[in-house]
């Protein structure tokens, strides 16, 4: 009897050793692009632990990387949850993961739809329109955008991944982005200096307000799923999630605040050039009148941007008729409120600060820059 049991176990082990896709760790994994050549969908729907599932038998051709041009057949398992299903048809372009195991065994499975082509087309249209409409300044705008992306991706994020406190490095990066952007767009002059000082003052004020209020109401910085997932990074970095939150608020407010600072400084310079007989007070008031018009729309810009990203969550609360007291005291909602209001306060204060600085620089005695 014991001998028979040992034989059965031995046969099972041999069988298992041949199924690398299920029981072995891959030696190498590649993420590549592919096109779907054929799809055969199962008619029957089987229920596994209460979850409805369906299988697509797919033939696809790899279009990039080491296995470019090769054809593979794979299974695409789907549940009844549309959030996670990747339903494909013949001709669809997809992203696949190719896993290599021992004895040249290869397993291929679909990880997502290939979206990069359409994204690049949209990016191309964006760049084209900026250059056609903005001409020389449009080219400068593209250059500043590229510099901003490089600073964030190549400097800010890597420093954060090394465990450095994100608040001071975010402030430094935001100052660098502001200086580089405004100087490239408008050159070194009174208008640019006023816009730089006003913008930097605005986003620093926004960050300070967010920090003070966030600490007092005990925001965790863990309201977003992505923040929680940072706990499981392979680098095992001990992140300060509150600092990450405030860093994000500073960076998120920068764009709108820079827009306001540049608009106020530019309008004051144009008003001065049109009528150089205006006194400092008159010039300041003219700039403030422009700023008041900007204020109404730009505060809406920040608040609507944050609200727009939270529509599913807001609908969820309304659908379950959650009380307003409970909603406002949730960490995720309180975080967005602080983010929106602190950014808007920084934006509003940028207007008088920039107007005051621009007026003083333009009306000061001596030669302008």
Structural account:
62% of the residues lie in helices and 15% in strands. By secondary structure, it is of the alpha+beta class. Strands 1, 2, 3, 4, 5 and 6 form a six-stranded antiparallel β-sheet that branches. Strand 3 and strand 4 form a beta hairpin. Helix 3 (116-161) crosses helix 4, helix 5 packs antiparallel against helix 7 (241-274) and helix 7 (241-274) runs antiparallel to helix 8. The longest helix is centred in the middle third of the chain and has 46 residues, at 116-161. Mean pLDDT is 84; it is low at 1-22 and 365-369.
Multimerization status: single chain
Number of DSSP helices?
11
Secondary-structure element order, as H and E?
Answer: HHEEEEEEHHHHHHHHH
Extract low-pLDDT stretches: 1-22, 365-369
**Total strand segments:** 6
Structural class: alpha+beta
Q: Give the biggest sheet.
A: 6 strands, antiparallel
Q: Which geometry do the CA atoms define?
A: elongated
For the termini, the CA-CA separation is 98 Å
Strand content: 5-15%
Question: What would you report as the Rg, rounded to the nearest angstrom?
Answer: 28 Å
On the 0 to 100 scale, the average pLDDT is 84
The residue fraction in helices comes out at 55-70%
């Amino acid at each position: 009897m014991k001998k028979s049991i040992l034989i059965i176990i031995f046969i099972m082990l041999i069988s298992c050793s041949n199924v690398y896709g299920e029981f072995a760790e891959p030696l190498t994994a590649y993420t590549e692009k592919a096109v779907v050549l054929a799809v055969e969908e199962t008619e029957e729907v089987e229920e596994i632990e209460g979850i409805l599932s369906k299988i697509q038998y797919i033939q696809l051709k790899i279009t990039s990387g080491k296995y470019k041009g090769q054809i593979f057949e794979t299974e695409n398992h789907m549940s009844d949850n549309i959030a996670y299903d990747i339903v494909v048809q013949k001709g669809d372009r997809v992203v696949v993961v190719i896993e290599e195991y021992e004895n040249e065994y290869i397993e291929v499975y679909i990880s997502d739809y290939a979206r990069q082509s359409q994204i690049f087309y949209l990016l191309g249209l964006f760049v084209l329109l900026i250059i056609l409409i903005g001409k020389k300044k449009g080219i400068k705008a593209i250059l500043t955008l590229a510099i901003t992306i490089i600073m964030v991706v190549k400097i800010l994020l890597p420093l954060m991944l090394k465990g450095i406190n994100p608040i001071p490095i975010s402030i430094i990066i935001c100052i660098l982005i502001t200086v580089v952007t405004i100087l490239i767009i408008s050159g070194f002059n009174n208008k640019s200096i006023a816009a730089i000082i006003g913008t930097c003052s605005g986003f620093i004020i926004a960050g300070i307000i967010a920090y003070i209020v966030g600490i007092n109401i005990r925001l965790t910085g863990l309201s977003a799923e992505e923040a929680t997932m940072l706990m499981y990074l392979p680098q095992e970095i001990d992140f300060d999630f509150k600092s990450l939150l405030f860093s994000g608020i500073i960076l998120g407010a920068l764009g709108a605040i820079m827009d306001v600072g540049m608009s106020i400084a530019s309008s004051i310079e144009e008003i001065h050039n049109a009528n150089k007989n205006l006194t400092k007070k008159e010039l300041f008031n003219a700039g403030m009148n422009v700023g008041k018009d900007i204020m109404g729309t730009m505060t809406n810009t920040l608040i609507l941007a944050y609200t727009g990203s939270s529509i599913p969550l807001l609908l969820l609360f309304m659908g379950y008729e959650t009380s307003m007291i409970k909603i406002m005291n949730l960490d995720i909602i309180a975080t967005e409120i602080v983010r929106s209001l602190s950014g808007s306060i920084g934006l509003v204060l940028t207007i008088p600060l920039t107007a005051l600085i621009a007026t003083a620089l333009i009306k000061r005695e001596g030669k302008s820059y």
